[in-house]
Amino acid sequence: MQIEILLPLIGYLLLVCLLSIYAYHRRQKGEFLHEYFLGNRSMGGVVLAMTITATYISASSFIGGPGAAYKYGLGWVLLALIQVPTIWLSLGVLGKKFAILARRYNAVTLNDMLYARFQSRLLVWIASISLLIAFFGAMTVQFIGGARLLETAANIPYEIGLLIFGITIALYTAFGGFRASVLNDTIQGFVMLVGTIILLVATIHKAGGLAAATETLKTIDPKLITPQGADNIFSMPFMFSFWILVCFGVIGLPHTAVRCISYKNSQAMHRGIIIGTIVMVILMLGMHLAGALGRAILPDLTIPDQVIPTLMITVLPPFAAGIFLAAPMAAIMSTINSQLLQSSATIIKDLYLNIAPEEIKKERKLTWISSASTLILGALLLLAAWHPPQMIIWLNLLAFGGLQAVFLWPLILGLYWQKANRFGALSSMILGALSYTLLTAFDVKFLNFHPIVPALLLSLIVFLIGNVVGEKKSLSTPIKMN
């Protein structure tokens, strides 16, 4: 283990814990459900931008994405920039209307919104179970990314790094709640920005400049500097599928959507869109370009996901590498705490309180159950991440697609189409989940598109058909949440 690298990371983890303690004390002063899961809807523009960006950017953006850029070349850098409009799309499409309706319905979770809109308990159960399954896969990816980071950069054995990483996140999420999550996201967002810029500059310098790095890549494999990429991976169907998965479809991700019901006012939303988009440009371009150019410095890595951690200790002094180590750790931690919190909210608000609504007044009991469920989920994730695959980006995209296949159309059409009804939404959710699962399991690709494209198309068609068959429900007669 390298002490110079570990010291800044230890300091960062201590800061995270202190913020969680502060959030825990603030939580005692508010009503549990709204304070623990939404922070009493008090986010300003900068905090909103940082938390939604940090929530979206994860191990795939700091570990898996740069690993893919290392393997496939500069074409993947261009592909990664498809993700730049995600903040604008999420806040622009959901944004103000989502927040207004959430306050009208007194909604705490995304499933609260769906129930108030479609008034179907079955829909809530399907959505909740789908969310928990997909989040489990997505969070496993983050745990693997964090452990690999510590293994490569700080020479900590994978299993020990996994325990350190997993236990820290489970504890601060369990006791700090949403306020701890967004406070940490804000700091983590700034850490990611500074770290990305430092690493990219150091990588370009170590490679002898952009021109020299490009020539080296050309020597290794001429396709690394072409738009088609190594192995000619970047076909039109592949790029369109990627755009659906990591840009347009992000509107349907629950942990991103819930940020749209937690900000303070319209001014905060508008600032969040501008600041968040700028941050996305810097992070997406910086990290993926560093990964692609990293092959000019480290041409013989057998595991592409190790490129960023290895670059850190190669191009930066040990103490600076330790400071930068906090950047990908921040990306991973911010995503996990958001998904853990949403999983806990789903278990408590959407499942437990649906079965026993009278328990809503027992705040101490709800607090205990919420913390316990978060810790148990953390333990299960540690077990799932114990034997990781070589490239985590594909597992992460699999989980992303599952969430989008279930939530995208019920969320967007429920919000903007007043005549949308529960039968259409239910049909869309069920067929979306089934078609995506079967197409993925049997590796079926229509016209070489990723399974998310036909799955979303089928779920949209069945939504429209179901809407004709089922009874009509109007947004003017919602059920208010407790």
The CATH architecture: Up-down Bundle
Which stretches are poorly predicted, pLDDT < 50 over at least 5 residues?
Answer: 30-40, 474-482
- Structural classification: mainly alpha
Tell me the helix content.
Answer: over 70%
CATH class wording: Mainly Alpha
Distance between the termini: 51 Å
CATH superfamily grouping: Sodium/glucose cotransporter
Q: What about the largest sheet?
A: none
What integer is the average pLDDT? 81
Which radius of gyration do the C-alpha atoms yield?
22 Å
Order of helices and strands: HHHHHHHHHHHHHHHHHHH
* Beta-strand segment tally: 0
Do you know the CATH topology?
Sodium/glucose cotransporter
Question: How many helices in DSSP terms?
Answer: 19
Instruction: Estimate the global geometry from the Cα principal axes.
Output: globular
Tally of domains: 1
How much of the sequence lies in strands comes to under 5%
